[in-house]
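User: Design a sequence. Structure:
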């Protein structure tokens, strides 16, 4: 039988009771912020209901933030990239409205693909990571991987009789981001294993790729013409294609910085 709750607790005793209750109920955000929230509620003469709502929303918001952080960490992005930091003015080939539409992640919800095609330094990997991050923040399971790393992992899994398990693991995530597709030639076995992953995800879960080769140049990577055509079909059917162009704005930015430094040195 539960003992009756004590009334007329001192402030110190009340704070201790709140701390203990938050530990038991696993409410870390309320535990950490209760004091400040209570002081603010007193100053603003909030009602009991409004104060309770403030407490609960604080905990809910922090839990949502922590879930997003866990999903972003699980995605294994190699670096932090955001859409806010993408310089659309430096690369006019990329339409901001199109990218902002993709940031809603409706295409991920529908299981549609995305292809980012362009030369090195044009921002395709930045967009791939940034859009993957947006998807993770919206509750989708995301995984980032280099194309060569994925193929090597699949080959090793096949050799160790773990291929079905590995393909299923990559098939479960809502969005698979494959970077640097087309940088290296794949032998027939590697290409076929990658094709299996794409087939597992077809029209169910999204794949986003970044490649420095146009589709016509993919025969350098996938040397079997039929397999190449099938892979292109898997990655473009009902999907979005963004051409990031051929002019490296990253190189242009580096040159501009160097010229600015030279000009400052000359003026010194």
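Assistant: Done.
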């Amino acid at each position: 039988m539960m003992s009756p709750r004590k009334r007329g607790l001192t402030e110190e005793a009340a704070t201790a009771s709140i701390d203990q209750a938050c530990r038991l109920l696993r409410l870390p955000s309320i535990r950490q912020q209760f004091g400040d929230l209570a002081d603010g509620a007193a100053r603003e003469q909030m009602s009991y209901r409004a104060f309770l709502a403030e407490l609960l929303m604080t905990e809910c918001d922090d839990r949502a933030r922590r879930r997003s952080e866990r999903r972003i960490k699980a995605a294994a992005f190699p670096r932090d990239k955001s859409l806010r930091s993408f310089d659309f003015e430096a690369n006019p080939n990329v339409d901001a409205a199109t990218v902002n539409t993709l940031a809603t992640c409706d295409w991920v919800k529908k299981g549609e693909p995305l292809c980012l095609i362009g030369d090195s330094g044009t921002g395709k990997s930045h967009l791939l990571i940034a859009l993957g991050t947006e998807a993770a923040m919206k509750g989708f399971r995301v995984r980032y991987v280099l194309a060569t790393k994925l193929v090597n992992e699949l080959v090793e899994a096949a050799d160790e009789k773990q291929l079905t398990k590995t393909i299923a693991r990559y098939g479960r995530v809502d969005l698979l981001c494959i970077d640097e597709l087309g940088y290296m030639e794949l032998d027939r076995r590697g290409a076929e294993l990658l094709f299996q992953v794409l087939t597992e995800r077809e029209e169910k879960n999204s794949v986003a790729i970044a490649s420095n080769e146009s589709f016509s140049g993919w025969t350098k990577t996938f040397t079997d013409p039929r397999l190449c055509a099938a892979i292109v079909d898997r990655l473009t059917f009902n999907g979005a294609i963004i051409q990031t162009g051929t002019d490296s704005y990253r190189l242009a930015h580096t040159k501009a910085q160097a010229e600015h430094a030279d000009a400052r040195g000359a003026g010194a």
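Strands lie at 114-118, 142-146, 175-181, 206-211, 240-245. The chain is about 55% helix and 10% strand.
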